[in-house]
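Interim report, section 4.2 (structural modelling).
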Amino acid sequence: MSRNILIVDDSTTTRAMVRRIITMCGAAPDNIYEAADGADGLAMLGQNHVDLVLADLHMPNMGGLEMTQRMQSNPAMKNIPVVIISADPNLGHLEQLKLLGVRGHLSKPFTPEGFRTLVGDLLGVQANA
Amino acid sequence: MLKIHNDHLEASLSDALNVMAFISPMPPEDMAPPTGPALRTRIDFEGVTTGSLELVCPLAFGAMLAANLLGTEPEASDNNASGDALRELLNVTCGTMLRNSGATQRGAIEMGVPTQESFDISNWNTFIESDAVVVDADGCKLAIRMIDGI
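Predicted structure of the assembly:
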């Protein structure tokens, strides 16, 4: 079964960095898709099979929380796990993350080990060091 | 208003550089201005504590940072990638500082979107004399300062 990951972030550098860390962590997805904001991310989800979404919190047009909220109201998307990756200092206190269906969060800066643990669990794979 | 001290700022910059890019900043050998074109990157924050962070460094450091983040060579980093890497560094430094200083325990703080402009290096001394922290990151000088808001 293929495993596909969608990275949603307005920074091209951050998307490339997350893509690199995914590779470093040995998660070995079949496809990594990228989107520059939540609206773009929803469009990608409508066109592709995705197993995990890694999204920034604050983005122009549509942020990660609104995107997750819209995914929850779409039967085809509501079961796709979303992980929020952000430097937002309030991230650990955002109770609304879970209420909106966010499955996990990573505060920047994060280590490859922390990333591997979270992503490995959600993809149901034993990622290699 | 909660006062955030420069030791929180320096530790947060060091943490961000270490974890993101495997760069361990050191005290600079001197305070002379760096050479080459430079950028000033700024981020504002507002809430239980309000202010801004400003980072000044050579554009060449942005290229090195982008290369470290992306696993490429510095020569492969264009100005967009260099600037983007510096905005990300300041964004992460700011979030880390606000968390580690205990500010977010007192209430919410909203961070803005980092902005960037070219920096006239002849203003280096004026910048660092305004309570800036200066570090040497793999041979490049970086100066960062906090501006308290109202």
